[in-house]
Amino acid sequence: MQKKNLVLIALFMALAYIGVPWIIGVSGRTDFYYTLTSVALLSIASGGVWLTFYIGRINIGQGAYALAGGYVSAVLMTQYGFSFWASLPLAGLFCAGLAVLIGLPILRLRGVYFAMVTLVLTEVMRLTALALSITQGAKGITSIPLPGELSVFGVTLVPDFSTMENPKVGFYWMAVTLMIIAFAVLWRIVNSRLGHLCRSLQQNEELASSIGVNTAYLRVIAYAISSFFGGIAGASFIAISQSIYPSSFQVVDSVNFMLNCFLGGLGYVLGPMLGTLMLYFGWDLLFTTGKYQLLIYSSLLIALMLALPNGVLSLLDRKKA
User: Fold this and answer.
1) Helical spans, DSSP H, in 204-270
2) Any bridge partners for residue 158, and if so which?
3) Nearest one of 115, 128, 129 to 255, comparing CA atoms
């Protein structure tokens, strides 16, 4: 099984790094670089939401951390002279620390109560960005510089994006690399002792606590990692758009991050990735339906969730059965 997984991973990486650029080059549709970059970054944020589902909590507040991560990166670059590569992990760590402070009280809540509290987080973060002078209020932060050169011991790992003929290609490679790292981390967590303990929270928190599992600690750790992913995704988005506003991430984005997990499959590490891909392209494909776009889109989502309550990836299990 491990050998089969390694082959699948190798095929996926070959497709992402070689196949997709070749297809885009042949077709001349360079605009797909931006589309696939967006899908990769959205799947990272959705992967964080998936991790909170893994401990039995419904997270509808990931947009708040994406917005916070974007602002942290923008402020560090424009006002303090940090490079994008230095601001990226700092944005994620800031969101993880913020999640610990917020999560300590609200993670004690169960089910729908926790979900409803997280639902307001994105709007609270938007109003905070409007009120603070460091975020420049409704004007937002613009003219954010492109990522510069990334080198280690004098060896250039990533060239300066401003010198690239087509920075979209650079952003695509960056987003795909971050996505692969993020889902590799998720897979490692799930298959570690920490992951097994987190799974026990899904099934019965009281039973897990009775045998000595520190349930409060596990919930906070999972929520912090989830928010770290949201901060990384938000910081990467503002590097692409070179601007950020209080409305850059809204409540609807938080809801979509959750839907990505449901559609792909809550029982599968790659569920958020597949769900993001399907929702993003599904919405675009329905653009031609005009005013019926939202109606058809929501109806299809409901139908899919009724037909496949465990997500699209559950079809693989049915096939094996």
Assistant:
1) 205-210, 215-241, 251-264
2) 150
3) 115
How many whole angstroms separate alpha carbon 251 and alpha carbon 156? 39
Indicate if the pLDDT at residue 126 is higher than 60.
yes
Share of the chain above pLDDT 90, in %: 57
What values do phi and psi take at 54, rounded to 5? -65, -25
Which of 104-118, 207-221, 247-261, 276-290 reaches the highest mean pLDDT?
A: 247-261
* Six-digit token string for 53: 């589902």
Residues with Cβ within 8 Å of residue 61, at least 6 apart in sequence: 117, 118, 119, 120, 121, 122, 254
**63 within 8 A of 250, measured Cβ to Cβ:** yes
Taking each helix axis as running N to C, give the angle between helix 193-203 and helix 215-241, from 0 to 180 degrees, rounded to the nearest 10.
110
Distance between CA 240 and CA 223 in Å, rounded? 26
Question: Rounded CA gap, 139 and 228, in Å?
Answer: 26
Q: CA 282 to CA 312: how far, in whole Å?
A: 14
What pTM does this model have? 0.93
Residue 111: other Cβ atoms inside 10 A: 10
Between CA 173 and CA 33 the distance in angstroms is 9
Q: Which residues contact 193 (CB under 8 A, 6 or more apart)?
A: none
Cβ contacts of residue 60 below 8 Å, gap of 6+?
115, 118, 119, 251, 254, 255, 258
Cross-strand bridge partners of residue 152:
155
Burial of 112 (0-12, 13-18, 19+ CB in 10 A): exposed
Do the beta carbons of residue 39 and residue 203 sit within 8 Å?
Answer: no
Four-CA torsion 194, 198, 200, 201, nearest 10 degrees: 150
pLDDT of amino acid 116: 87
Pairwise CA distance, residues 78 & 146, whole Å: 11
The residue among 183, 207, 168 whose CA lies nearest residue 268 is 183
Buried b / exposed e along 309-319 (16+ C-beta atoms within 10 A)? ebbbbbeeeee
